[in-house]
């Protein structure tokens, strides 16, 4: 989840946005002003924001629900006046799940401007084991929301961050959900998993022609390792690789040679893949992974899917200097859809999902927020 707190909005930035809003029509003025309040609220930290002064605090309700025999738990955030539709908000990798304080703050902000938020608990994202199971769980959250939450008019929006973008889009393209999702907000998402893995491990992005990229975040390879361990059948290899990954996440110089020497025929290919630094070796190393893991990897790869099945509008927000998933992925997602269906906002202050914008960077985030608010009214 994004650490969006302590965002520096200068008086010049605030004044510029208000001036531009005054030059717009009445509807655009209100929407632009609300977008400004949203961003200021997210940056307020422990201090009271303008939005908090002007709105009542939404209520939060815990619900248990089942879809086709599958049981789930979620939080529903009810605004005082539900003047926008429902939104399923997918949390990212966090052991605190739907109760991650940053996610709670984000959900409260969106609910203050009229969205009814449904935030499901996704066990895979809590233990870093992302898979197509998460796509199914997100699709079930869409089914529940459109069937049970009053005032959604059988449609809901969907928002996801980083690695959760793939499962969210897959969920939005299923036969009985495609017509239920009005729009998707995707922050720092991926398109081609092989290219993403190549960048994370070697620094090369073959989908980003002519892009000058910063070096990848050193911790990303170990997060990727954690996300795939659950597909290994060898429990000893699972435990060894989890220990390696967690130690490296805490200290990238940690010595793990003893654990590496004990890896068996399942764990060794996965370790070799995430520690590889030769871009030309990636495909060959992928081919050596256990078959179950390869199948899941392919199933989550958006570049292998027919995106024509997506009916929803897609709002893409991505930072040009993202060191986990390069911006080329969002650009390719936009290009893969019919003209006008996807809209990319390149926010230079967005480093993967951490935000610290200046004046011009805040402008792009403001434009994206205005777009989300507008779509929520339809």
Using the coordinates shown, work out and report the CATH topology of the largest domain.
Rossmann fold
CATH architecture designation of the largest domain? 3-Layer(aba) Sandwich
Question: How many structural domains?
Answer: 2
Number of helices: 16
Shape: globular
CATH superfamily of the largest domain: Alpha/Beta hydrolase fold, catalytic domain
The main β sheet shows up as: 8 strands, mixed
Query: Spatial order of the strands in the main sheet?
Result: 1-2-4-3-5-6-7-8
| Mean pLDDT metric | 87
Residues in helices, as a percent range: 40-55%
Which CATH C-level class of the largest domain is it? Alpha Beta
Q: For the terminal residues, how far apart are their CA atoms?
A: 27 Å
Radius of gyration: 21 Å
Strand proportion, as a percent range, falls in 5-15%
Low-confidence stretches: 1-13
Count of beta strands: 10
**SSE order in H/E notation?**
HHHEEEHEHHEHEHHHHHHHEHEEEH
Q: Helix/strand-derived class?
A: alpha/beta
Please tell me about this protein's structure.
InterPro entries: AB_hydrolase_fold. Keywords: Hydrolase. The protein is an alpha/beta fold. It has two domains: 20-189 and 303-376, 3-Layer(aba) Sandwich (Rossmann fold); 194-299, no CATH class. Helices cover 44% and strands 15% of the residues. It has helices spanning 11-22, 26-43, 50-54, 101-112, 123-126, 132-148, 165-171, 193-202, 220-228, 235-250, 257-261, 267-275, 282-287, 291-299, 328-336, 359-376, and strands at residues 59-67, 70-78, 86-89, 116-120, 156-161, 181-187, 313-318, 342-346, 350-351, 354-355. The strands form two sheets. It has an eight-stranded mixed β-sheet with strand order 1-2-4-3-5-6-7-8, with helices on both faces. Strands 9-10 form a two-stranded antiparallel ribbon. Strand 3, helix 4 and strand 4 (116-120) form a beta-alpha-beta unit. Helix 9 packs antiparallel against helix 10 (235-250). The protein starts with 10 loop residues before the first helix and ends with a helix. The relative contact order is 0.13. Residues 1-13 have low confidence and may be disordered.
């Amino acid at each position: 989840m994004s650490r969006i707190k302590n965002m520096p909005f200068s008086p010049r930035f605030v004044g510029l946005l208000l001036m531009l809003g005054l030059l717009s029509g009445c509807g655009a003025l209100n929407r632009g002003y609300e977008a400004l309040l949203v961003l200021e609220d997210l940056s307020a930290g422990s201090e009271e924001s303008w939005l908090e002064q002007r709105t009542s605090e939404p209520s939060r309700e815990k619900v248990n629900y089942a879809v086709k025999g599958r049981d789930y738990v979620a939080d529903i955030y009810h605004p005082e006046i539900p003047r926008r539709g429902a939104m399923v908000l997918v949390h990212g990798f966090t052991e605190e799940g739907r109760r991650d304080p940053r996610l709670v703050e984000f959900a409260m902000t969106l609910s203050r401007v009229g969205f009814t938020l449904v935030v499901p608990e996704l066990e895979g994202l809590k233990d870093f084991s992302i898979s197509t199971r998460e796509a199914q769980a997100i699709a079930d959250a869409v089914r529940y929301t459109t069937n049970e939450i009053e005032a959604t008019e059988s449609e809901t929006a969907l928002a996801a961050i980083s690695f959760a973008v793939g499962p969210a889009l897959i969920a939005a393209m299923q036969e009985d959900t495609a017509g239920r999702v009005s729009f998707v907000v995707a922050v720092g998402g991926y398109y081609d998993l092989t290219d993403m893995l190549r960048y994370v491990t070697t620094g090369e992005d073959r989908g980003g022609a002519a892009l000058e990229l910063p070096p990848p975040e050193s911790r990303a390879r170990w997060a990727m390792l954690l996300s795939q361990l659950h597909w290994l059948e060898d429990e000893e290899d699972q435990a060894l690789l989890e220990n390696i990954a967690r130690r490296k996440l805490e200290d990238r110089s940690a010595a793990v040679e003893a654990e590496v020497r004990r890896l068996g025929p399942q764990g060794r290919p996965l370790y070799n893949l995430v520690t590889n630094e030769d871009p030309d070796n990636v495909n060959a190393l992928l081919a050596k992974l256990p078959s179950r893991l390869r199948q899941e990897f392919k199933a989550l790869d958006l570049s292998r899917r027919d995106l024509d099945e997506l009916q929803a509008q897609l709002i893409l927000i991505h930072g040009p200097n993202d060191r986990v998933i390069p911006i080329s992925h969002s650009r390719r997602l936009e290009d893969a859809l019919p003209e006008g269906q996807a809209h990319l906002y390149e926010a230079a202050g967005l480093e993967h999902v951490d935000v610290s914008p200046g004046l011009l960077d805040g402008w792009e985030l403001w434009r994206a927020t205005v777009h989300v608010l507008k779509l929520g009214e339809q």
